Structures are given as structure tokens and as C-alpha cells.
Amino acid sequence: MENISPIIGYFIHQGVPLETVVLLFMLPIVVTLIAFFRQVIGIKAFGIYTPAIVTFAFLAVPQLRYGVLIFIVVILVGMLLRFALKGLRILYLPRVAITLSIIAFSILILLSAGGAMHRTGLAAVSIFPILIMITIVEKFVAAQIEKGNKAAVILAVETLIISLFGYYLASWPLLIKGIVAVPWLILITIPINIFLGKWDGLRLNEYIRFREVLKNLK
Amino acid sequence: MLEIFKNGSKLLGMNARNLDYIRPYNRKKAKKLADDKILSKRMLKKGGIPVPKLLAKIRTAEELENFDWSSLPSTFALKPNRGYGGGGIMVVYGRKKLSRKEIANTEDGETPLPVWVKSDGGKVTVEDLKSHILNILDGAFSLANMPDIAFFEERLTLLKLFKPYAYKGIPDIRVIVFNRIPVMAMLRLPTKESGGKANLQQGGIGVGIDLATGVTTTAVLGKGKIIDYVPGTRMLLSGIRIPYWKEMLLLAVKAQEISGMGFLGADVAIDRVRGPVFLEINARPGLSIQVANLSGLKERLERIKGLKIKTAVRGVRVGRDLFGGEIEEELEEISGRKVIGTIEKIRLIGKNGKSVELEAKIDTGAGFTSIDTDLAEKLGFEDTVREYQKIETTYKDIKHLSKTERWNIYKHIPNLESTVVVNSASGSTYRPTIKITVIMDNVIIPTKVTLINRAHLKYPIIIGKRNLKKFLIDVSK
User: For the sheet containing B123-124, what is the strand order?
Assistant: First the structure.
């Protein structure tokens, strides 16, 4: 890289890999993006942790589509298992434990099926992004119980959308170059978040939700 | 486009609700109270507010194991203490009769476990209740999945008025109260989709209510679909007059005082026997009430920010004056009289319960109410009319006679009350009177009315001064 800020240079000199430094600097940007989606656009997702961690899981897989595929399979199997386990009438944590185990096996089958179809990229996905995505099913099951199936699926789709935005933002070469050159830029996220935290206007989706009322106001 | 954003500032969105109202006005301690249904129930009861009876509570798995299931009545609601948005509530409507086989299967000396029926007709066994309660205890329905308490509550009985509108469950009235003033209200109706629950999040219907009169306006299904009728029926949702309106607003404001919160949603239901019963307080009221009323909350809240309201009664009055549509009701309340127009729809009840509904002319120039002879026939006074028409006398012929002499001419007529002199623009006449009942604007007036041929006139009946004492007349109505 041509322009490396002295502070980044110092980190590298101390043995921190450049990739790690960049990812850590990306975190404030990704979480600010998630806050923006929630406060201004009105896309909720499963809180802030899940879309952030899924974003980084996506960044860690060799090809984005395999990451998305694993995400979708995890959610689908999680959804099916809710119906399958309903009759068992067992408590929350044991139920999630069973769900997680079965999802783990399903992913194993998926990876080997990819290998059988000569999609070696799928099997080459490292274990950590896979584990991360398996564990997000807990959020999904919790949402299913609290808010119902439909709401849980919507939240999962929203998580996927935000994570995709996060992925493209965090892998944008220009942004990476900028951060490496001027890492202080990251500090802008703090005033942005203060603004978002004080933003009391309608969210974009609320303009849609209240369209009938807006038509009637004079 | 700019217009939309300008109007948007009148609406209360999620951000503004949390940041500008819940955060500053609802202290943590007060919110805790609202989120704890059993505790808030006790506090409200202490404050003299009628609440549904608490039947039993289950705090631990051990208590669940030792619970006496036969102590439960045939109908009740099972709720999580810290539930929200109507989640985790189970309502049963009756006990299922056990089949002979089921009774035979139980061991000697043991009474068989009861089985209940849900709104969809499905069975609820003790096993079902246990598993549901375990989930509640485990925190599956509570905020942030905290371990919770399950409790059984008396189920209210449905008011007849609401029967055609509500699917299974009990409708309730949500009132947003801020600064001791009721700000907006809606009627929440359970639907098939909502499984007998009245929460909009669960697919119920929200119907906006005019704060001044308690009459419903527009309706929304679920989170945002505007509807006119109850789905699948021809039951119009607008124009329903909610009974006990003022009392309910007063309950809502009093509950706010007790709760210590500045901004809340109060849920009040009406029990067929007990009248208004307070259900619960909400520290985070939903925003769809704005769709049901087709108006913005933020605009209203900002108008009353900082007002110093000393009593609940005053707060209710301010809310109704500021945010209600019509003031007619107020006038009726002050004067104790009903406001009617110059033409009113009335019901007449004659002989043997025969009744006719028609439009009447309100005539302050007339003393007596008079009705057309044809109309009198319809009310069962055929004999009276026939005999009366046989007598061919005019006012001039008999005006020199004494009262008794005149009475002798008419007295053979059946059902006759008396005869009176009526002076009208077309000259004076002697008219027989009969006794009927007039029902106008829900006021029942038993009265004497005079008989006359009004076939050439537009209205077969005029209501005279003698019957208008309980009314004020608005000529523009």
C-alpha cells in the first residue's frame, strides 16, 4: 500500500497484521451504518451485534455467495426445526441446543454436497464464519417465540440486507485506502452517532406506515 | 413532497416516542411498575380503580407442580407477568365435558384433571397449561427474556354492544394519557387472526374514537390497513357509541397519576356486569393509534406540554375540549337536555304495543303534539278514528256549549282521553286526544296527542311544546 499513516505503520511494526487493523477500524463504520439503518431508515434486524458479526463473517468467507448461502440455510433449518420441535414441549435452552446441533450437521452436509458438485469454494470456507452464522440462530429462535414466525423471518431478511450493505462498505477499496491513509477519519462516527441518538424525526419506513394519516393531515 | 415531510412532523414516530416522551417522562421505577402486571394491578386496586380479579399466580416450577388445577374456574386468562405486546397470553372460554372413557382412565379416588376450550375450539389440557407456564417462567415472553411469573386472571364478560364486532375476546379501549390529559383513544377489537386478543401487533382491529363524544371514527386492521367494516361482515365500524365514555377517560387519567408515569397507554375494558374495568398500563404505547384516528400524536402532545393540570376531572375536560370533534355533547351535559333538530326521527307506541317509526316536525308554535288520523289507525286506534269521523260538528256549532255538554258528544268514542280546543292558523278546532308514547332521541315521553286529518301536510305528526321540555332545538341540524 502506498499511503500508510504513521499510526498504522506503528501497529504493523508491533506485529499486528494490516488486515486485522483494517477490520478493527471498519467496526465503528459498520456499527454506525447499522445504527443509521435503525434510526433513520427503520430497518431493525436482530439488534446491532448480529448484523455486525454477520458482516464480518461475510468478509471472512472467500466468496460472498457462499456466506449468504450458509446464512439462508441456517435460518431455513432453524425455522423448520421450530415446527419439528414444537411437539416435544421442552424448555428454551435445550431446544436451542438441539436446534444448533442439527444445524451444525446440516451445514456439514451442505459443505460436502458442495464438494460433491465440485464447488470447492464452499468447503474451503473457514470454520469461524460458519460457527458465527450457526450461533445467530439463537436470535432467530428467540424472535420466533417472542414475535412470531413472520416477524422473525422479516428480521432475518433485514439482518441479511444490512450485513450485505456492511459487507460492500467494509470491502470498498477506496474506503480501506482512506482509512489506512487517514485513520483519524474514524472519529467522525462519534458525532454521527450522537446525531443519530438525538434524531427524533420519523423513520423512512414510518412514512410508509403512516401514509394514510399523512394523506389526511392538513 | 415537502408537504409530506412537513406533515410528518405532526406524527409521533418510534424515535420521538422513545427519545422525547418515554425517556424524560417515564422514570425507571415507574416503568418497572408498568412492566410488572401483578404489582401494577395491586397498586391500581389500592388507588380505587376496578381491575380484573387475580385468581392465582405461579412463581416457580415447584409451585407449578403443586398447583391445584381444579381450583381454576371454567374461564380465565393466563398471562406472563412481564409480557408485552399481548404475547404469551392464553385465554380459555369454558371447561370441556370429559368423556366417559377419560373418566374411566383416571385412578380410583382421583378426580379427573379438567380440560378447557380455547377460542378456536381447540382443547387445553393441564399438560398444555404446564408447558405454557414453564415457557413463561423461563422468560420466553418477557422483556429481555428475564425469568418471569405466570398468573391466572378473571376473564371479563363481553358487553352485548360489542358482540357483533369482536371475535371471541374482549375489546378494550386504549387511551394515550400525557400530563393528566387524555390525548388520543381507540377501540381495539380482537379478530380471528389475533386469536381473541385485542392487540394490533397480533392482528386486531383498532378503531379511532372522538375524544369528546366517545363515538368511533375510522378503523385500521393490524398495523396499517384502513377498513370500513369488520372483515367478512357488513358491520360498520364507525359511529359506535362507547358507553361509560367519561368514566373511562377518568380511569385512564387516574391510573396515570397512580403509575407516576408522565406518558402512557391505558387499557380499559367494559365488563357486562362490572362496567369499566382497568386492564393495564403501558409504558411504551404503540403508534398505530395514529392510523386508527387518522391524526398525529406529536402535534397533540406538543400542545399540552407544560400545562398545569390539577385534577383528573379537569384533565379529562381539557382533553375532550382540545382533541374532540363536537361540543354538542358538552351542551347536553351542561343543560341536562338533548339537542334535537327541527325534523327528528321518532318512534311512536300506540295500542297493544303497535309501533311506528317516522320523521316528525318539531313545532314550537304548537302546544299539543298532533298526529294524522291515518297514523292513529296504524297505531291501533281504528275505532277511535272511525267514531270521531262520524261526528260532523264544527267549532262554531259547539263553542257555546259547556264542557260537560261537549264531552257528551264525544264520550262514546273508544280510547278517548279528552277533547281540547286547538287554535291554529286555519282557525280553531275541537279535537279529541288519545294517549300514546313518543320516543325521541332515546327519551321516552308518554303523552296525550290530538287527532286531526293531516293528509295534505308533509309530516303526519308535529311535536308540540308540551313534549319538548327535555330538549333544546338546533335549527341548523
Answer: B94-96, B115-117, B123-124
Residues forming beta bridges with residue B209, ordered by sequence position: B216
Cα A110 to Cα A57: distance, rounded to the nearest angstrom: 17
Amino acid in the structure at residue B259: S
* Residue B265 half-sphere exposure toward CB, CA atoms < 13 A: 23
Set of cell numbers at residue B115: 380440560
Pairing of strands B443-452, B461-463: unpaired
Whether the complex's predicted ipTM surpasses the cut of 0.90: no
| Residue B290 to residue A206, Cβ atoms within 8 A | no
CA distance B338 to B333: 8
Q: Label residue A198 exposed, middle or buried (CB < 10 Å: 0-12, 13-18, 19+).
A: exposed
Q: How far is CA B73 from CA B120, B137, B243, B441, in A?
A: 19, 22, 28, 42
Take residue B244 and report the three cell numbers written for it.
Answer: 361509560
Question: Which of A89, A146, A210 lies closest to B290 in CB terms?
Answer: A210
Amino acid letter at A54?
Answer: V
Place of cell 385412578: B107
How does DSSP assign B242-285, residue by residue?
A: PTTHHHHHHHHHHHHHHHT-SEEEEEEEEETTTEEEEEEEESS-
Answer whether A92 sits within 8 Å of B8, measured CB to CB.
no
Element (H, E) at B217: strand B216-221
At B160, list the grid cell. Answer: 352485548
With an 8 Å Cβ cutoff, is B36 touching chain A?
no
Please classify residue B394 by burial: count the beta carbons closer than 10 Å to its beta carbon, then call 0-12 exposed, 13-18 middle and 19+ buried: exposed
At B445, give phi and psi (nearest 5°): -125, 105
Looking at residue A51, its pLDDT comes to 95
- Cell output for A70: 450458509
B428: cell is 280553531
Cβ–Cβ under 8 Å, residues B220 and B206: yes
Tell me the C-alpha distance between B277 and B168, whole Å: 18
CA neighbours closer than 13 Å in the CB half-sphere of residue B375: 27
What CA–CA distance (Å, rounded) separates A27 from A34?
A: 11
pLDDT at B250 over 90: yes
Closest CA to B143 of B60, B222, B81: B81
- What are the residue ranges of CATH 2.40.70.10 in chain B? 339-473
B-chain residue closest to A39, CA distance: B15
CA-to-CA dists, residue A133 to A52, A69, B230, B316, angstroms:
11, 11, 44, 53
CB contact under 8 A, A214 and B19: no
User: CATH for B1-52+158-335?
Assistant: 3.30.470.20
Check A210 against B291: CB less than 8 A apart.
yes
What cell was used for B330? 358538552
pLDDT at B295 over 80: yes
- Under CATH, which architecture does the B339-473 domain have? Beta Barrel (2.40)
B244 confidence band (pLDDT: 50, 70, 90)? very high
pLDDT of A111 > 60? The answer is yes
Can you read off the three cell numbers belonging to residue A186?
474514524
Give start-end residues of each CATH 3.30.470.20 domain in chain B: 1-52+158-335
| pLDDT surpassing 70 at residue A218 | no
| Residue B82 reports pLDDT greater than 70 | yes
